[in-house]
Amino acid sequence: MPSFKLDGKTIPFEPGESIIGAARKAGVEIPHYCWHPGLSAPANCRMCLVEIKPAAGQRPIQLDVLSLDPKTGEYKYQPKPKLQPACQYPAVDGQEVLSDSSTHVGDARKAVQELLLLNHPVDCPICDQSGECKLQDYWLEHQKTQKRMRDEPIHKPKAVVFGPTIVYDAERCVMCTRCIRFMEEVAKDPVLDMRERGNLNEISVAPGRQLDGNYTLMTEHVCPVGALTATDFRFKARVWFLRSVKSVCQGCATGCNAWLDYDPRTSSVYRYRPRENAEVNKFWMCDPGMLSYKRAHEGRVAEPRIAGKTTTVQRALESAKKHFDGVPRESIAIVFHARYSNEDNWALKELAITLLGTRMFYRSGGAPGTGDDILIHADKNSNTAGLNQLAPSARPFADLLADIKKGAVTHAIALGGATPGDPEADLAELRGLKSLVTISAHDGPLTKAAAVVLPATSWAEAGGTYTNAKGLRQISEKAIEPIGSSQPAWKVLAELGRVLGVEPSWSKLKDIRARLLAVEMPSQPDVSAQAE
Questions:
Q1: Count of CB atoms within 10 A of residue 459's CB?
Q2: How far apart are CA 8 and CA 229, in angstroms?
Q3: In contact, 250 and 298? CB cutoff 8 Å
Q4: How many secondary structure helices (H) and strands (E) does the chain include?
Q5: 3-state helix, strand, coil in the chain (%, to 5)
Q6: Coil, helix or strand for 260?
Q7: How far apart are CA 253 and CA 246, in angstroms?
Q8: Per-residue pLDDT at 527
Q9: What is the domain-level CATH number for residue 49?
Q10: Contacts for 275 with CB less than 8 Å, ≥ 6 apart
Q11: Of 230, 263, 296, which one is at a domain's C-terminal end?
Q12: What's residue 237's pLDDT?
């Protein structure tokens, strides 16, 4: 494999890769603003300039630069190597590149930083980007000098509403054009552009348009400074109080990899951010997916209920037992849910076969929606593929409603609250059951029709694996503590099994994951070592 030297370190690269791209893969950061691994490289910020040593026998490319001699106080022409943008310059086998070890590169970075900060407002204390802003980070790493300009800075528009999700502050903008390129190259909607020139330029929205659609929040995510802020997160939290876990988006069957940011002091989830995965979502997420973090708190079932009234967990379990005493097994339906983890659905299957002796399997989940050819899948359930592999014989939800109507099913145990059809119509049909016990994190037709409701944790409160539409089984980690009396659904099902008189074969998450490894799934990670 070809390689080059970067500050003395050997960096391997694939043919066609840029210097900055190869360095990033090797875990070495070359400072940059405009470059993004998923976008084209305009080389307009000049922060990634590096010095490339000439090969043996080549003449060095040098420039005569007018610089101040600190000893004499006079300006003199000094030879300086011509620096190259690492984002555009291709990696060449055997070449030697200087970045942090070059004084010329260091001077260039200081100059770029100073230029960018000449007109930049000093509003870090009220800026949402504070704490994760490249201007702050690079000032500490590469500048550390006071502002020398004493003139009044150029003032530009502030708090400009670009659309329903994004607010723009032109004074903070460094004109990296990442937002412009994302909307054009990834979202395929070139609604943003740059107007004016020099220190007067700013980002603008096309006349007669606003920044809308399914990928607007990504413009805020790719912005390296605080120029673009999301109305959903604006002024709500400081990032240094937040912690992050590796999560899987629950918005659709694509299963985008994400960081789930939460405040451990209050067990509150604040946002989703894309997590890079070349096989699934690359560097991106859609707006509905990024906003789906709200389901960690909205519409939750926090306490057990009997006939709609709040009760204790023990009383709810005892009531569930009474509902199934003496009921013929062939009339008990088991309803799996495509929004719940492989572990939860596996535990329900074990309860059905081992403890209840029924194979009347049905499937539920969220209603289908629209998709696109970028990321959004029409299937709005995060684990349909996993459910198909765990319970391939499970019949559609419509079959359950038909069997209820003709009296073939009289009792049911269901996972989850959502149904794939019209909520009111589904609720009316479900009320034809003599008894329904539902284990769910969210309210829906299945919980409203239930005689007994047992609260389950959401994906944010318990670790789980989800299989996306491509068949990739992915781990989502626990973030916040369970709300109310909720527990992981697999744990609730174990307690329900004990109440029904049979000891379950699992007591810990690792027990289930060890059994899941026997279920054939492509590209599955080693989940056996992951603890609860």
A1: 28
A2: 39
A3: no
A4: 14, 24
A5: 30, 20, 50
A6: strand
A7: 17
A8: 41
A9: 3.10.20.740
A10: 246, 247, 257, 258, 259
A11: 296
A12: 95
Amino acid residing at 239: V
Query: Which residue range forms the structural domain that includes residue 290?
Result: 160-296
Q: Quick check: is 144 in a domain? A: no
Q: What is the pLDDT of residue 146?
A: 86
- What pLDDT is stored for residue 356 in this prediction? 79
The pLDDT score that the predictor gives to residue 469 is 96
Average pLDDT, the chain: 93
Helix or strand (DSSP H, E) at 318: helix 313-324
Are 446 and 394 part of one and the same domain? Answer: yes
Nearest in space to 120 (alpha carbons), one of 74, 153, 86: 153
pTM across the whole model: 0.92
Q: Does residue 125 form part of some domain? A: no
Please give the Cα distance from 190 to 241 (Å, whole number): 35
**Domain end (from 241, 276, 296):** 296
- 450 and 336 part of one domain: yes
Six token digits for residue 503:
């000891």
In this structure, the answer to whether residues 333 and 218 fall within a common structural domain is no
Q: Judge whether residue 4 has pLDDT over 60.
A: yes
Provide the number of structural domains found in the chain.
3
In a domain, residue 369? The reply is yes
Tens digits of residue pLDDT in 400-419? 999 999 999 999 999 999 99
Whether 367 and 476 map to the same domain: the answer is: yes
* pLDDT tens per residue across span 101-117: 999 999 999 999 999 99
What's the length of the chain? 532
Asked whether 12 and 5 are in contact (CB, 8 A), the reply is no
Strands 411-415 and 435-440: parallel
**Which backbone phi and psi does 238 adopt, to 5 degrees?**
-100, 135
Whether 379 is covered by a domain: the verdict is yes
Spatial distance between the Cα atoms of 101 and 97, rounded to a whole number of angstroms: 9
Q: Are strands 361-364 and 332-337 parallel, antiparallel or unpaired?
A: parallel
In whole angstroms, what is the distance from residue 301 CA to residue 248 CA? 21
User: What H or E segment, with its residue span, contains residue 320?
Assistant: helix 313-324
| Token duo for residue 362 | 């049905």
